[in-house]
Amino acid sequence: MKTKDKMIAGFSKLSKPEKLAWLVKHFFTSNPMDVMREFASFWHTNVEAQKLFDGISENTITNFYMPYGVAPNFKINNRIYCVPMVIEESSVVAAASSAAKFWYNRGGFKARVLSTTKVGHVHFIWKGDPVKFYSFFNQIKARLIQGAKDITANMEKRGGGLKSLKLNYLPEIEEGYYQLKVDFETCDAMGANFINSVLESFAKTLTSEAYKYEDFYGEEQNLKVVMAILSNYTPECLVESWVECKVSELGTFNNGEMCAEAFARKFEQALNIARNDSFRATTHNKGIYNGIDAVIIATGNDFRAIEACGHTYAARDGQYRSLSEAKVDNGWFRFSLKVPLAVGTVGGLTKVHPLAKRSLELLDNPTAEELMEIIASVGLAQNFAAVRSLITVGIQKGHMKMHLHNILSHFKATEQERVTAVQHFEKETISFNAVRLFLAGMRDESFV
Ligand code: MEV
User: How far is residue 175's CA from residue 369's CA, in Å, rounded to a whole number?
Assistant: First the structure.
Protein backbone atom coordinates (compact mmCIF):
# COMPACT_ATOMS: atom_id res chain seq x y z
CA MET A 1 0.00 0.00 0.00
CA LYS A 2 1.33 3.42 -0.94
CA THR A 3 1.95 5.91 1.86
CA LYS A 4 -0.41 8.45 0.33
CA ASP A 5 -3.29 5.95 0.54
CA LYS A 6 -2.97 6.27 4.29
CA MET A 7 -3.60 10.00 4.18
CA ILE A 8 -7.21 11.10 4.65
CA ALA A 9 -9.07 14.41 4.81
CA GLY A 10 -12.20 14.67 6.94
CA PHE A 11 -11.60 11.54 9.03
CA SER A 12 -13.32 13.16 12.01
CA LYS A 13 -16.52 13.61 9.96
CA LEU A 14 -16.89 9.86 9.31
CA SER A 15 -19.24 7.80 11.46
CA LYS A 16 -17.65 5.36 13.86
CA PRO A 17 -18.21 2.28 11.64
CA GLU A 18 -16.85 4.25 8.67
CA LYS A 19 -13.77 5.25 10.63
CA LEU A 20 -13.21 1.64 11.60
CA ALA A 21 -13.73 0.36 8.09
CA TRP A 22 -11.21 2.88 6.72
CA LEU A 23 -8.65 1.98 9.40
CA VAL A 24 -9.03 -1.72 8.86
CA LYS A 25 -8.67 -1.34 5.12
CA HIS A 26 -5.55 0.82 5.31
CA PHE A 27 -3.62 -0.31 8.38
CA PHE A 28 -4.45 -3.94 9.21
CA THR A 29 -3.38 -7.14 7.56
CA SER A 30 -5.55 -9.48 9.68
CA ASN A 31 -8.98 -10.58 8.53
CA PRO A 32 -10.98 -7.31 8.25
CA MET A 33 -14.13 -8.76 9.82
CA ASP A 34 -12.17 -10.09 12.80
CA VAL A 35 -10.55 -6.72 13.40
CA MET A 36 -13.85 -4.85 13.08
CA ARG A 37 -15.59 -7.32 15.38
CA GLU A 38 -12.86 -7.08 18.00
CA PHE A 39 -12.95 -3.27 18.12
CA ALA A 40 -16.74 -3.27 18.14
CA SER A 41 -16.88 -5.86 20.91
CA PHE A 42 -15.58 -3.17 23.30
CA TRP A 43 -18.33 -0.69 22.48
CA HIS A 44 -20.63 -0.08 25.40
CA THR A 45 -23.91 -1.95 25.08
CA ASN A 46 -25.71 1.12 26.39
CA VAL A 47 -25.85 3.60 23.51
CA GLU A 48 -26.13 6.63 25.79
CA ALA A 49 -23.11 5.54 27.82
CA GLN A 50 -21.13 5.06 24.62
CA LYS A 51 -22.11 8.55 23.45
CA LEU A 52 -20.76 9.92 26.70
CA PHE A 53 -17.37 8.24 26.21
CA ASP A 54 -17.20 9.28 22.57
CA GLY A 55 -17.83 12.84 23.69
CA ILE A 56 -14.88 12.82 26.07
CA SER A 57 -12.30 12.59 23.28
CA GLU A 58 -12.13 12.71 19.49
CA ASN A 59 -11.99 10.18 16.65
CA THR A 60 -12.97 7.40 19.02
CA ILE A 61 -13.35 3.98 17.47
CA THR A 62 -13.80 1.94 20.64
CA ASN A 63 -13.07 1.92 24.39
CA PHE A 64 -9.79 0.79 25.91
CA TYR A 65 -10.48 -1.17 29.09
CA MET A 66 -8.24 -0.93 32.14
CA PRO A 67 -8.68 -2.97 35.32
CA TYR A 68 -10.42 -1.09 38.14
CA GLY A 69 -9.38 -2.57 41.50
CA VAL A 70 -9.70 -1.50 45.11
CA ALA A 71 -7.21 -1.51 47.97
CA PRO A 72 -9.01 -1.96 51.30
CA ASN A 73 -7.87 -1.25 54.87
CA PHE A 74 -6.30 2.14 54.29
CA LYS A 75 -6.31 3.96 57.63
CA ILE A 76 -5.55 7.61 56.87
CA ASN A 77 -5.86 10.21 59.63
CA ASN A 78 -7.86 7.59 61.55
CA ARG A 79 -10.49 7.18 58.81
CA ILE A 80 -10.78 3.90 56.95
CA TYR A 81 -10.80 3.95 53.18
CA CYS A 82 -11.17 1.39 50.45
CA VAL A 83 -9.20 3.06 47.67
CA PRO A 84 -10.11 2.75 43.95
CA MET A 85 -7.13 2.08 41.69
CA VAL A 86 -7.11 1.91 37.90
CA ILE A 87 -3.88 0.34 36.70
CA GLU A 88 -2.69 -2.24 34.18
CA GLU A 89 0.41 -3.46 36.07
CA SER A 90 -0.12 -6.65 38.01
CA SER A 91 0.84 -6.62 41.71
CA VAL A 92 0.40 -2.87 42.25
CA VAL A 93 -3.02 -3.13 43.90
CA ALA A 94 -1.93 -6.20 45.86
CA ALA A 95 1.18 -4.34 47.09
CA ALA A 96 -0.82 -1.26 48.11
CA SER A 97 -3.33 -3.44 49.96
CA SER A 98 -0.58 -5.31 51.73
CA ALA A 99 1.14 -2.09 52.87
CA ALA A 100 -2.21 -0.64 53.97
CA LYS A 101 -2.83 -3.73 56.12
CA PHE A 102 0.72 -3.63 57.51
CA TRP A 103 0.29 -0.05 58.73
CA TYR A 104 -3.33 -0.48 59.82
CA ASN A 105 -2.25 -1.85 63.19
CA ARG A 106 0.72 0.47 63.50
CA GLY A 107 -1.19 3.73 63.63
CA GLY A 108 -2.09 3.96 59.96
CA PHE A 109 -1.10 6.78 57.64
CA LYS A 110 -1.04 10.39 58.73
CA ALA A 111 -1.31 13.12 56.15
CA ARG A 112 -1.59 16.89 56.00
CA VAL A 113 -1.89 19.43 53.24
CA LEU A 114 0.90 22.00 53.45
CA SER A 115 -0.36 24.43 50.79
CA THR A 116 -2.85 24.59 47.92
CA THR A 117 -1.57 27.30 45.58
CA LYS A 118 -1.86 26.81 41.80
CA VAL A 119 0.05 28.96 39.38
CA GLY A 120 0.06 30.32 35.83
CA HIS A 121 1.88 32.86 33.69
CA VAL A 122 1.41 35.37 30.93
CA HIS A 123 4.67 35.27 28.96
CA PHE A 124 5.32 38.39 26.92
CA ILE A 125 7.92 40.60 25.28
CA TRP A 126 8.25 44.35 25.70
CA LYS A 127 11.44 45.99 24.60
CA GLY A 128 11.22 49.42 26.24
CA ASP A 129 12.70 50.72 29.48
CA PRO A 130 12.01 48.14 32.26
CA VAL A 131 11.70 50.88 34.91
CA LYS A 132 8.82 52.36 32.95
CA PHE A 133 7.25 48.97 32.57
CA TYR A 134 7.21 48.30 36.30
CA SER A 135 5.59 51.66 36.86
CA PHE A 136 2.99 50.86 34.15
CA PHE A 137 2.31 47.49 35.74
CA ASN A 138 1.69 48.98 39.17
CA GLN A 139 -0.78 51.44 37.67
CA ILE A 140 -2.80 48.89 35.73
CA LYS A 141 -2.76 46.01 38.23
CA ALA A 142 -6.22 46.87 39.57
CA ARG A 143 -7.56 47.06 35.99
CA LEU A 144 -6.17 43.63 35.23
CA ILE A 145 -8.02 42.21 38.21
CA GLN A 146 -11.21 44.13 37.41
CA GLY A 147 -11.10 42.96 33.79
CA ALA A 148 -11.19 39.31 34.92
CA LYS A 149 -14.01 39.77 37.46
CA ASP A 150 -16.55 37.92 35.28
CA ILE A 151 -14.37 34.86 35.51
CA THR A 152 -13.18 35.16 39.11
CA ALA A 153 -16.49 36.13 40.78
CA ASN A 154 -17.83 32.58 41.12
CA MET A 155 -14.54 31.17 42.38
CA GLU A 156 -14.39 34.01 44.92
CA LYS A 157 -17.84 33.00 46.21
CA ARG A 158 -16.43 29.52 46.81
CA GLY A 159 -13.52 30.97 48.77
CA GLY A 160 -10.95 30.96 45.99
CA GLY A 161 -9.68 33.26 43.27
CA LEU A 162 -6.50 35.23 42.74
CA LYS A 163 -3.87 35.08 45.45
CA SER A 164 -1.15 37.27 44.02
CA LEU A 165 0.24 38.83 40.85
CA LYS A 166 3.94 39.31 40.34
CA LEU A 167 5.90 40.74 37.43
CA ASN A 168 9.22 39.08 36.59
CA TYR A 169 11.67 40.61 34.10
CA LEU A 170 13.94 37.89 32.69
CA PRO A 171 16.00 39.26 29.77
CA GLU A 172 18.51 36.43 30.26
CA ILE A 173 15.90 34.07 28.77
CA GLU A 174 14.92 36.28 25.83
CA GLU A 175 15.46 39.96 25.01
CA GLY A 176 12.64 41.98 26.59
CA TYR A 177 11.04 38.91 28.16
CA TYR A 178 8.65 39.38 31.08
CA GLN A 179 6.31 37.02 32.80
CA LEU A 180 3.31 37.86 34.84
CA LYS A 181 3.21 35.15 37.49
CA VAL A 182 -0.21 34.64 38.99
CA ASP A 183 -1.02 32.53 42.05
CA PHE A 184 -4.49 31.04 42.39
CA GLU A 185 -6.66 29.24 44.90
CA THR A 186 -9.09 26.96 43.10
CA CYS A 187 -10.70 25.20 46.13
CA ASP A 188 -12.05 21.77 45.16
CA ALA A 189 -11.46 22.24 41.44
CA MET A 190 -8.26 21.34 39.66
CA GLY A 191 -8.97 24.70 38.04
CA ALA A 192 -7.17 24.44 34.69
CA ASN A 193 -9.92 26.12 32.67
CA PHE A 194 -10.46 28.78 35.29
CA ILE A 195 -6.75 29.61 35.46
CA ASN A 196 -6.26 29.69 31.70
CA SER A 197 -9.32 31.90 31.20
CA VAL A 198 -8.07 34.40 33.77
CA LEU A 199 -4.60 34.40 32.22
CA GLU A 200 -5.99 35.02 28.74
CA SER A 201 -8.04 37.90 30.11
CA PHE A 202 -4.88 39.34 31.71
CA ALA A 203 -3.02 38.95 28.42
CA LYS A 204 -5.70 40.96 26.60
CA THR A 205 -5.82 43.72 29.20
CA LEU A 206 -2.02 43.97 29.31
CA THR A 207 -1.84 44.39 25.53
CA SER A 208 -4.61 46.97 25.28
CA GLU A 209 -3.45 48.99 28.29
CA ALA A 210 0.16 49.08 27.04
CA TYR A 211 -1.04 50.35 23.70
CA LYS A 212 -2.88 53.25 25.36
CA TYR A 213 -0.21 54.11 27.94
CA GLU A 214 1.12 57.60 27.29
CA ASP A 215 4.49 57.12 28.93
CA PHE A 216 5.30 54.46 26.38
CA TYR A 217 4.92 56.88 23.46
CA GLY A 218 8.15 57.09 21.57
CA GLU A 219 9.21 53.71 22.94
CA GLU A 220 8.58 50.34 21.36
CA GLN A 221 4.84 50.45 22.12
CA ASN A 222 3.77 46.97 21.19
CA LEU A 223 3.59 44.46 23.98
CA LYS A 224 3.67 41.03 22.37
CA VAL A 225 2.11 38.20 24.30
CA VAL A 226 3.89 34.91 23.61
CA MET A 227 1.45 32.75 25.57
CA ALA A 228 -0.82 32.63 28.59
CA ILE A 229 -0.96 29.28 30.34
CA LEU A 230 -1.08 27.61 33.73
CA SER A 231 2.01 25.86 34.96
CA ASN A 232 1.69 22.22 35.92
CA TYR A 233 4.60 22.76 38.26
CA THR A 234 2.82 23.49 41.53
CA PRO A 235 5.41 23.11 44.29
CA GLU A 236 3.10 25.10 46.54
CA CYS A 237 0.23 22.65 46.16
CA LEU A 238 1.89 20.24 48.50
CA VAL A 239 0.88 17.38 50.75
CA GLU A 240 2.81 15.24 53.20
CA SER A 241 2.02 11.69 54.26
CA TRP A 242 3.92 9.61 56.79
CA VAL A 243 3.91 6.42 58.81
CA GLU A 244 5.86 5.81 61.99
CA CYS A 245 6.22 3.23 64.72
CA LYS A 246 8.79 1.89 67.14
CA VAL A 247 11.40 -0.11 65.24
CA SER A 248 10.60 -3.12 67.43
CA GLU A 249 6.98 -2.97 66.22
CA LEU A 250 8.00 -3.52 62.61
CA GLY A 251 8.10 -7.28 63.22
CA THR A 252 10.37 -9.72 61.45
CA PHE A 253 10.91 -10.43 57.77
CA ASN A 254 12.04 -13.30 55.54
CA ASN A 255 10.36 -15.90 57.73
CA GLY A 256 11.98 -14.52 60.84
CA GLU A 257 15.48 -14.36 59.37
CA MET A 258 15.56 -10.56 59.28
CA CYS A 259 14.89 -8.72 62.54
CA ALA A 260 13.16 -5.35 62.77
CA GLU A 261 16.40 -3.45 63.42
CA ALA A 262 18.12 -4.96 60.37
CA PHE A 263 15.05 -4.20 58.25
CA ALA A 264 14.89 -0.58 59.42
CA ARG A 265 18.61 -0.08 58.78
CA LYS A 266 18.42 -1.61 55.30
CA PHE A 267 15.32 0.46 54.53
CA GLU A 268 17.20 3.60 55.49
CA GLN A 269 20.10 2.57 53.24
CA ALA A 270 17.75 1.94 50.31
CA LEU A 271 16.22 5.39 50.79
CA ASN A 272 19.63 7.02 51.05
CA ILE A 273 20.59 5.47 47.72
CA ALA A 274 17.35 6.70 46.13
CA ARG A 275 17.96 10.15 47.54
CA ASN A 276 21.43 10.44 46.04
CA ASP A 277 21.47 8.35 42.89
CA SER A 278 19.21 9.57 40.08
CA PHE A 279 19.03 6.16 38.40
CA ARG A 280 17.62 4.59 41.53
CA ALA A 281 15.54 7.70 42.34
CA THR A 282 13.70 7.42 39.02
CA THR A 283 12.63 3.82 39.65
CA HIS A 284 11.90 4.56 43.29
CA ASN A 285 9.62 7.45 42.30
CA LYS A 286 8.07 5.36 39.54
CA GLY A 287 6.99 2.98 42.30
CA ILE A 288 5.39 5.90 44.17
CA TYR A 289 3.52 6.96 41.00
CA ASN A 290 2.27 3.39 40.49
CA GLY A 291 0.01 4.14 43.44
CA ILE A 292 -0.59 7.83 42.83
CA ASP A 293 -1.49 7.50 39.14
CA ALA A 294 -3.85 4.61 39.79
CA VAL A 295 -5.98 6.76 42.13
CA ILE A 296 -5.57 9.83 39.94
CA ILE A 297 -7.03 7.91 36.98
CA ALA A 298 -9.78 6.28 39.06
CA THR A 299 -10.92 9.71 40.27
CA GLY A 300 -10.86 11.35 36.82
CA ASN A 301 -7.82 13.52 37.48
CA ASP A 302 -4.95 14.35 35.12
CA PHE A 303 -2.09 11.88 35.59
CA ARG A 304 0.19 13.61 33.04
CA ALA A 305 0.01 16.85 35.02
CA ILE A 306 0.60 15.05 38.31
CA GLU A 307 3.61 13.12 36.97
CA ALA A 308 5.20 16.11 35.21
CA CYS A 309 4.90 18.16 38.37
CA GLY A 310 6.23 15.46 40.68
CA HIS A 311 9.33 14.83 38.61
CA THR A 312 10.17 18.54 38.42
CA TYR A 313 9.68 18.72 42.18
CA ALA A 314 11.97 15.72 42.65
CA ALA A 315 14.70 17.69 40.85
CA ARG A 316 14.07 21.02 42.59
CA ASP A 317 17.58 21.35 44.03
CA GLY A 318 19.21 20.56 40.67
CA GLN A 319 19.47 16.80 41.13
CA TYR A 320 16.68 14.31 40.60
CA ARG A 321 16.05 12.65 43.98
CA SER A 322 13.59 10.33 45.71
CA LEU A 323 10.38 11.99 46.84
CA SER A 324 10.22 9.96 50.03
CA GLU A 325 12.51 9.82 53.06
CA ALA A 326 13.13 7.30 55.84
CA LYS A 327 14.61 7.94 59.23
CA VAL A 328 15.48 5.66 62.10
CA ASP A 329 15.90 7.73 65.23
CA ASN A 330 15.90 6.85 68.90
CA GLY A 331 14.25 3.50 68.29
CA TRP A 332 11.59 4.95 65.98
CA PHE A 333 11.08 4.28 62.28
CA ARG A 334 9.58 7.12 60.25
CA PHE A 335 8.84 6.99 56.55
CA SER A 336 7.40 10.00 54.76
CA LEU A 337 6.53 11.44 51.38
CA LYS A 338 6.14 15.07 50.35
CA VAL A 339 4.56 15.45 46.93
CA PRO A 340 2.81 18.20 44.98
CA LEU A 341 -0.68 17.07 43.94
CA ALA A 342 -2.93 19.51 42.09
CA VAL A 343 -6.15 17.52 42.05
CA GLY A 344 -9.84 18.28 41.89
CA THR A 345 -13.00 16.66 43.17
CA VAL A 346 -15.34 18.87 41.14
CA GLY A 347 -15.23 19.84 37.48
CA GLY A 348 -13.29 18.21 34.65
CA LEU A 349 -13.86 14.51 34.26
CA THR A 350 -14.61 13.96 37.95
CA LYS A 351 -18.37 14.13 37.48
CA VAL A 352 -18.56 13.28 33.77
CA HIS A 353 -17.01 9.82 33.88
CA PRO A 354 -19.53 7.64 35.74
CA LEU A 355 -16.79 5.57 37.36
CA ALA A 356 -14.78 8.61 38.43
CA LYS A 357 -17.92 9.78 40.17
CA ARG A 358 -18.32 6.37 41.84
CA SER A 359 -14.66 6.44 42.90
CA LEU A 360 -15.22 9.73 44.67
CA GLU A 361 -18.35 8.34 46.29
CA LEU A 362 -16.34 5.30 47.43
CA LEU A 363 -13.96 7.76 49.11
CA ASP A 364 -16.93 9.49 50.77
CA ASN A 365 -16.85 12.44 48.36
CA PRO A 366 -13.65 14.02 49.67
CA THR A 367 -12.65 17.64 49.33
CA ALA A 368 -9.64 18.24 47.09
CA GLU A 369 -7.46 18.49 50.21
CA GLU A 370 -8.72 15.17 51.57
CA LEU A 371 -8.11 13.58 48.17
CA MET A 372 -4.53 14.94 48.23
CA GLU A 373 -4.03 13.24 51.61
CA ILE A 374 -5.48 9.94 50.39
CA ILE A 375 -3.43 9.91 47.19
CA ALA A 376 -0.17 10.79 48.93
CA SER A 377 -0.80 7.98 51.43
CA VAL A 378 -1.37 5.47 48.63
CA GLY A 379 1.88 6.65 46.99
CA LEU A 380 3.70 6.14 50.28
CA ALA A 381 2.12 2.71 50.80
CA GLN A 382 3.14 1.67 47.30
CA ASN A 383 6.68 2.86 47.93
CA PHE A 384 6.83 1.04 51.28
CA ALA A 385 5.66 -2.22 49.69
CA ALA A 386 8.20 -1.95 46.86
CA VAL A 387 11.18 -1.14 49.09
CA ARG A 388 10.13 -3.80 51.61
CA SER A 389 10.17 -6.42 48.83
CA LEU A 390 13.41 -5.14 47.37
CA ILE A 391 15.32 -5.36 50.64
CA THR A 392 13.83 -8.69 51.70
CA VAL A 393 12.71 -11.33 49.19
CA GLY A 394 13.29 -9.26 46.06
CA ILE A 395 10.68 -7.84 43.73
CA GLN A 396 10.23 -10.72 41.33
CA LYS A 397 8.68 -13.24 43.70
CA GLY A 398 5.48 -11.25 44.29
CA HIS A 399 5.50 -9.67 40.88
CA MET A 400 5.77 -12.93 38.97
CA LYS A 401 3.15 -14.54 41.19
CA MET A 402 0.69 -11.91 39.96
CA HIS A 403 2.08 -11.92 36.46
CA LEU A 404 1.56 -15.69 36.21
CA HIS A 405 -2.09 -15.01 35.34
CA ASN A 406 -1.08 -12.78 32.43
CA ILE A 407 1.23 -15.50 31.10
CA LEU A 408 -1.54 -18.08 31.50
CA SER A 409 -3.92 -15.77 29.61
CA HIS A 410 -1.35 -15.44 26.86
CA PHE A 411 -1.42 -19.23 26.43
CA LYS A 412 -5.23 -19.28 26.72
CA ALA A 413 -5.09 -21.56 29.78
CA THR A 414 -8.34 -23.23 30.83
CA GLU A 415 -9.66 -22.81 34.36
CA GLN A 416 -8.35 -26.26 35.30
CA GLU A 417 -4.91 -25.49 33.84
CA ARG A 418 -4.82 -22.25 35.81
CA VAL A 419 -5.56 -23.96 39.12
CA THR A 420 -2.90 -26.61 38.49
CA ALA A 421 -0.34 -24.04 37.31
CA VAL A 422 -0.89 -21.79 40.34
CA GLN A 423 -0.35 -24.80 42.63
CA HIS A 424 2.73 -25.90 40.71
CA PHE A 425 4.36 -22.45 40.70
CA GLU A 426 3.86 -21.96 44.43
CA LYS A 427 7.27 -23.59 44.81
CA GLU A 428 8.81 -23.08 41.37
CA THR A 429 10.40 -20.04 39.77
CA ILE A 430 7.95 -18.38 37.41
CA SER A 431 9.09 -17.32 33.96
CA PHE A 432 7.41 -17.10 30.58
CA ASN A 433 9.33 -20.12 29.39
CA ALA A 434 8.71 -22.16 32.54
CA VAL A 435 4.94 -21.59 32.20
CA ARG A 436 5.07 -22.40 28.50
CA LEU A 437 6.84 -25.71 29.17
CA PHE A 438 4.56 -26.56 32.06
CA LEU A 439 1.45 -26.06 29.93
CA ALA A 440 3.00 -27.96 27.05
CA GLY A 441 3.61 -30.86 29.45
CA MET A 442 0.03 -30.73 30.69
CA ARG A 443 -1.32 -30.57 27.18
CA ASP A 444 1.04 -33.28 26.10
CA GLU A 445 2.49 -31.02 23.42
CA SER A 446 6.13 -30.30 22.75
CA PHE A 447 5.45 -26.62 22.19
CA VAL A 448 2.63 -24.24 23.10
C1 MEV B 1 7.70 -1.50 39.49
O2 MEV B 1 6.58 -1.05 38.76
C3 MEV B 1 8.06 -0.49 40.55
C4 MEV B 1 9.32 -0.80 41.34
O5 MEV B 1 10.42 -0.99 40.46
C6 MEV B 1 9.57 0.36 42.26
C7 MEV B 1 10.90 0.31 43.00
O8 MEV B 1 11.87 -0.28 42.48
O9 MEV B 1 10.96 0.92 44.07
C10 MEV B 1 9.18 -2.08 42.11
Answer: 40
89 has catalytic annotation:
yes
Instruction: Report the topology of domain 118-231.
Output: Alpha-Beta Plaits (3.30.70)
Write out pLDDT tens, residues 373-383.
999 999 999 99
Of 97, 101, 103, which Cα lies nearest the Cα of 69? 97
With a 6 Å cutoff on the Cβ, whether 283 touches ligand 1 is: yes
Q: What is the pLDDT of residues 171-225, one digit of tens each?
A: 999 999 999 999 999 999 999 999 999 999 999 999 999 999 988 887 666 899 9
CA of 399 to the centre of ligand 1 (A): 10
Whether pTM > 0.90 for this model: the answer is yes
- Alpha carbon of 51 to ligand 1 centroid (Å): 37
Helix, coil or strand: residue 54? helix
**Winning range, highest mean pLDDT, from 92-101, 208-217, 399-408:** 92-101
Ligand 1 atom closest to the CA of 280, numbered from 1: 8
Ligand 1 midpoint to CA 430 (Å): 18
Q: Where are the domains of the chain?
A: 3-56, 68-114+237-393, 118-231, 399-443
* Class of residue 136 by CB neighbours under 10 A (exposed 0-12, middle 13-18, buried 19+): buried
CB of 262 within 8 A of CB of 388? no
Whether 280 lines ligand 1, by a CB cut-off of 6 Å, is no
Q: What CATH number does the domain located at 68-114+237-393 have? A: 3.90.770.10
The active-site residue out of 16, 44, 54, 89 is 89
For ligand 1, what atom is nearest to the CA of residue 383? Answer: 9
The whole-angstrom separation of Cα 420 and Cα 428 is: 13
Q: Is 144 exposed, middle or buried (0-12, 13-18, 19+ CB in 10 A)?
A: buried
